[in-house]
Predict the structure.
Amino acid sequence: EIVMTQSPATLSVSPGERATLSCRASQSVSSNLAWYQQTPGQAPRLLIYGASTRATGLPARFSGSGSGTEFTLTISSLQSEDFAVYYCQQFNNWPWTFGQGTKVEIK
Amino acid sequence: EVQLLESGGGLVQPGGSLRLSCAASGFTFNSYAMSWVRQAPGKGLEWVSTISDSGGSAYYADSVKGRFTFSRDNSKNTLYLQMNSLRAEDTAVYYCAKAERFAGYSFPGNWGQGTLVTVSS
């Protein structure tokens, strides 16, 4: 099973600032990586797939990069609605596995 | 618009059974694999199972293999997750998700709102 490790666990950022979230895979997953956003009481929402392709309708302030074992999600200028928990997920191998999440909170 | 509506959750005793359903609309249901992903209270996401578009193949997490059965009725655009021999550690919100395709692989794209399963005496 591929282990996905996200860092940091919590990121404190002021509105308007840039947030950079990291995700590392225990072995190569090529570009078969997705990012999700989850707000309290809501279902996860797909943000990025294929490591860097934005989901339909996703604002351009969200971007993904990386391949192999190292991935990054960047939010260029945090808006109030972006404070949430973010998960990475690999779909290169079964079973699908998720990182433990990064909580982005208001500084 | 893709819509996924889960139902069937509730409180069940350890060792008991429960059947979850997920009604799908807004897309060509029989053309997509579908999945269940769960989330224990206050915890992260855990993939549970994926079924092929025809229903002919299903994959399971080791944690539920032999206890859960994933099926679909393409004539009713509905998924079913039969959960037997339930344990306290199965307590979670269960989400159904539409498996989108990318470069020959699939990943959970659209998600339902989830249904809560609580296993407790």
Notes: Residues 53 and 105 of chain A are 25 Å apart (CA to CA). The interface with chain B takes residues 31-32, 34, 36, 42-46, 49-50, 53, 55, 87, 89, 91-92, 94-101 of chain A (CB under 8 Å).
